[in-house]
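Researcher: I'd like a candidate sequence for this fold, 71 residues long. If you have to choose between options at a position, lean toward the conservative one.
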């Protein structure tokens, strides 16, 4: 939980703020979380066993794509 609070939640806050905050920003965050949840298969991929690290990498990649205008 501490890892999430220090590393993942600030990235989520940046996502929401980047898309204007409020409800619009929340929708982008929810879309990202649904995408990640569908693809989280720790048994099939050993790199995904650490949930906190997986969420951090996924959020960082999504945030970079948002900043580049790909999303």
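Model: Candidate sequence:
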């Amino acid at each position: 939980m501490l890892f999430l609070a220090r590393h993942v939640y600030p990235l989520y806050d940046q996502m929401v703020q980047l898309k204007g905050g409020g409800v619009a920003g929340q929708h982008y965050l929810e879309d990202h979380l649904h995408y990640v949840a569908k693809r989280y298969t720790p048994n099939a991929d050993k790199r995904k066993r650490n949930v906190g690290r997986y969420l951090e990498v996924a959020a960082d990649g999504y945030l970079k794509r948002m900043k580049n205008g790909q999303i």
